[in-house]
Every structure is written in C-alpha cells, then in structure tokens.
Amino acid sequence: MAIGVYLTFRILDLADMTAEGSFPLGGAVATMCIIKGINPILATIAAFIGGLIAGLVTGILNTKLRIPSLLAGIITMTGLYSITSRVMQNAANVSLLGKKTVFTIAQNWGLSRNNAVIAMGLIIALLVIMLLVVFFKTEIGLAMRATGDNPQMSAANGIKTQGMKILGYMISNGCIALSGGLLAQNNGFADLNSGVGTLVIGLASIIIAEVLIRNLSIGGRLLTLVVGAIIYRLILALVFQMNVEPSDAKLASALVLVVCLTLPNFHLPRNLKGGKQNARSTKD
Amino acid sequence: MPEVLKIKNLHQTFEQGTVNENRVLRGIDLNLEAGDFVTIIGSNGAGKSTLLNSIAGTLPIQEGQIILKGTDITKLPVTKRAKNISRVFQDPKMGTAVRLTVEENLALAMKRGQHRRFRPGVKSQDRKFFKKQLAQLNLNLENRLETEIGLLSGGQRQAITLLMATLQRPDLILLDEHTAALDPQTSITVMQLTEKLISEQHLTAFMVTHNMEDAIRYGNRLIMLHQGRVEIDLAGEDKQNLTVPKLMELFQKHVGSGLEDDTILLA
Ligand SMILES: Nc1ncnc2c1ncn2[C@@H]1O[C@H](COP(=O)(O)OP(=O)(O)OP(=O)(O)O)[C@@H](O)[C@H]1O
Ligand SMILES: [Mg+2]
Questions:
Q1: Do A43 and A160 reside in the same domain of the chain?
Q2: pLDDT averaged over chain A?
Q3: How far apart are CA A44 and CA A64, in angstroms?
Q4: In the list A82, A124, A275, B57, which could disulfide-bond B81, CB 3.0-4.6 Å?
C-alpha cells in the first residue's frame, strides 16, 4: 500500500485521496470473489483491477475534466464507498471464515500461519516491486516519471502528460487495492470502513523510509518503503503501549505522522532535493 | 532554399476585453528557410517568448497561421508539434527532468514525438551513442550517465538540454535566452556548442538573446521585436556588417524619439 501511495505522491507529485476508497474496494472485491469460489490468487488480481478502474476514474476527473487532484480523489473516494458497499451486497463486513485465501495456500506449503503471512506478503511485495522497477525503466515508465518531475519539459518532448498521469493514478490505486485485498484475506473479513487513514499510513511509511535512507534508486526506494511501513507500525505499537485510549488511536497516529514529517526538517533545515519541496506544496 | 517555417499575421492578446488588455503580438509575418539561424532581440515584454510559445504550441493561437514544412500546425497541441520542434528554455531546471539520470533524460529526448512502448527505455547501444554525444561537450559528462541530472550544475544541464534538443534532428529549434542564467565562461561554452550543433545538423533556429554581441555574432539573420511587430529584419551582408552602435542607431531610427535610452534594448 505504501508503494501505491508512493507512486502518486512522489512520482506524480500528488496526494491522492482515492487511496481511502480503493483500499476497501480491493478488500471487498477479493473477498467476494473468494466467496464465489474463485481462486484466491485470481481474486487478488481482481482486487488489483478494481483499483486500476478507481484510479482511471480519478485520473479522468483530474486531467480531462480539470478537477484539482485533491478534489478528484475525494470525489472518487466518496463514490467508491457506495460501490464497495454494493460489491459487499450492502453488508458492512463480509467474513472469509474457513475460505481459501492466498495465505492458506502458503500454509499448505507446511508453514505456520504467521510464517505463511510473512512469506506470502514478501513474495507479493517483491513481485510488485520487481514489476514496477522494470516498468519504470521502460520508455513509458521514463515518460511517466518525467511527467511528475517536469510536465512542461515532458510535453515539449512529446509526452502525453495527461495520459501518463491517468496511468499513474491507475497503477497506484491498483497497488493500493491489491494491498486492501491482501489485508482482507489476512484479517479474514472485508470491512467497508477499512479505508480510513490509508493515505496517512502510506505517507508515513514514505517519509520514514526517506528519512532512513536518502537518495536511492527507484528499486531501492520501493524496498525501503516496506521497511518504512513496518517501522511506522512499530512506532504506533510503542505509542499504544503507553496506555492510549482506543478512541484516541487516530489522534495518536496523526501525531506520529506530524513528528515523522517534521523531524527531517529539523536535522536538515534546507533540503534542496526537489521532491521534498514539491511534496510540501501538494499538502498545503 | 526550401521554406521551413511560415508565420502569417500572428496576433496574441492577453486578457482580451478587460482593462488590462495587453496586445503582445500585433501581426507577425515571418518566413524562415532551411538552415536559417535567426537571432531575436527586443526589450523586456516585447513578446519574444510569446512568439516562441506560439510556435511551440504552449500558447493557443488566437489569430494568424503557422505553417511548418508545408503543414498547417496552427491548431496542433504541443505534444504533436514536439516531433518537429525542440526547445531550450532560459531556466536550466526547465529543460530536464531532475530526478531522472543523465541517460534517462537523453533517452526521453531521443524518443521526442515518437510512440513510447513497454520496452527498455535505455538500451546498451543507446548508452554508447550517448557517451559519444556527451564527449563532444567537453564537460566530462560522458562518465556520468547514471548521475541524477539534478545534481549537475546549471551549465552542464543546459549543455545536456541542448544536446537533447538535437539528438533527434528537429525541423526547428527554439532557444529562449538559453545562456542568460549561466556565468560568462559557461555561457560562451554553451553558445559555441549551440553554433556547432546548429551548423553540423543544418538546423533552422530561433534564438532569443539580450546580448547584442551574441545577436550580431551568431546566426545569419537578426530580427528585433518592438511593440508586437518585427521592427528590424536583417540578413546576409547587412547582418554581417552590423556592429552594436550601428544596431542602436537603426533601432532609434525605426522606433523614433520615443526611446529614452539604450536600457530598453539592453535591459
Ligand atoms: N501567459 C500569459 N498571460 C498573460 N500575460 C502574458 C502571458 N505571457 C506573457 N504575457 C505578457 O506578454 C508580454 C510579453 O511577454 P514575453 O514573455 O513574450 O516578453 P519577452 O519579450 O520574452 O520579455 P523578456 O525579455 O523579459 O523575456 C508581457 O507583458 C507579459 O506580461
Ligand atoms: Mg522572454
């Protein structure tokens, strides 16, 4: 999921709210497919495709209809709520109890439940990262990165920047829905409201990863994102050890994010790398 | 000589119909033949960048017509014109994608205006070609193919942008004060490179500059924009025999006594 958020946030330089809608959508699609008896791997891929479509919608709203990216994301996210609800046949929760999931497949290899989750999670994360690294080195991948970096130069080189943005939204939300689908399988249920905070968690993972190690190639960066996500979880776990009331959980995670975002600025008052500064302007 | 570019009665007005109405281009007619290297001078706000933006397609054309190699491109978007027109901007940051490496930027430019596919962006034979091209810049960039371009200096980047603009031979190259942000020494290097690339490839070029000596030294034709019109247009011997004082004198004659001092031109 962090990878998905990273794609729009860093590569396209946008904070895409669609994430909050495509995450539960992915969970719902994967869950319903599995319940219908579809192979869990195919079900997970279906979740990915659901995300692609969500991204396509936001992309079209943003580029063709010229709605600002933040608004376009919110619009899609709002609409997706109903769609996800439909997919789940109007239930707020759908259980996967006793069904085959990608994780039970790994368990069949003789792994314990926990190891199965870690193994499958890693396999899928690595697979996605590998595909993305290859993609970003293709002609189209280069064009997409250039579009996020310098749209004017990209257009001057004949890159259809609108198309690239749409494609970026699609891949990004595909990844987010994929992770939604995986989480639902891990949790054993799909939850209509699981999207809340997706973007925040994704952003936090990115920032932590970037604070940890600067200036990495794309592949390295995607890998550190996974580490960033885990660390963010650990920080949250630590915070909760300090007897935080469950109702204050969101506030606590918001504060953790603020700390993560501001810490690097104190160490390095002037960060001259373009990415950081642009990032700030998208959030303002 | 075959005609490359024909601009017919081009007008551009900003904020039309408001009190701020600003008629920047008021009927530009220009014909460029193959191999013409035209320097453009004119005071701040004369409309030089507006003219180049209109040709490149970043500004929609309100009135008039632009014909490139016999094709009417008046209504084509930037991306469609990119196949035939390349640009170098004043700001070295503008011409490259800073988070991409040197070779990735060059690879992007090599595909300017072509269809992009799902195949490797930088191939090993490309690398060899890029190295050779970079070597001729004499900036020791040939071994920095994998350096992020944002880490290079403005002059290095501008030289690379120039290279990018010519990797795929364009029908027309637009240079808008492309040495203005560079120190005097680098500026000379980049100007010499400009001339080399343009003459080697027989490019047709527009070059906007505020440096009168450059405007006179380079190119085979010089035009001056003033109040949205081409006021001076010199080619051939007339251009060769120009000196800065002569040019100032010409300017005064054309513009009349409205000119307070030289600063307008040299600004
Ligand atoms: N997109 C735009 N919208 C509104 N006004 C514009 C726009 N672009 C240029 N102008 C105006 O058009 C006029 C001419 O600008 P232009 O940039 O073409 O001048 P220039 O000759 O390139 O000047 P300089 O030497 O300073 O670069 C200016 O008054 C400017 O404010
Ligand atoms: Mg200008």
A1: yes
A2: 83
A3: 30
A4: B57
Q: How many CB pairs under 8 A join A and B?
A: 91
Radius of gyration of chain A (CA): 19
Same domain assignment for residues A170 and A187 = yes
Residue identified by tokens 């660390």 is A231
Q: Which residue range is the domain that position A275 belongs to?
A: 197-284
Pocket probe mutation, ligand 1, options B18, B21, B41, B48, max atoms within 8 Å of Cβ? B48
Shared domain for A83 and A100, answered yes or no, is yes
Q: Does the C-beta of B60 come closer than 6 Å to ligand 1?
A: no
Q: Which of B104, B113, B118 sits opposite A158 (nearest CB)?
A: B113
Residue range A228-277, pLDDT digits in tens:
888 887 887 787 787 777 778 778 777 877 887 777 666 544 444 333 33
pLDDT tens track for A210-227: 777 776 777 777 888 888
Give the separation between CA A6 and CA A14, rounded to whole angstroms: 9
* Helix boundaries (H) for A88-197: 102-107, 113-136, 139-149, 151-156, 161-187
> How many whole angstroms separate alpha carbon B183 and alpha carbon A108?
67
pTM of the full predicted structure? 0.85
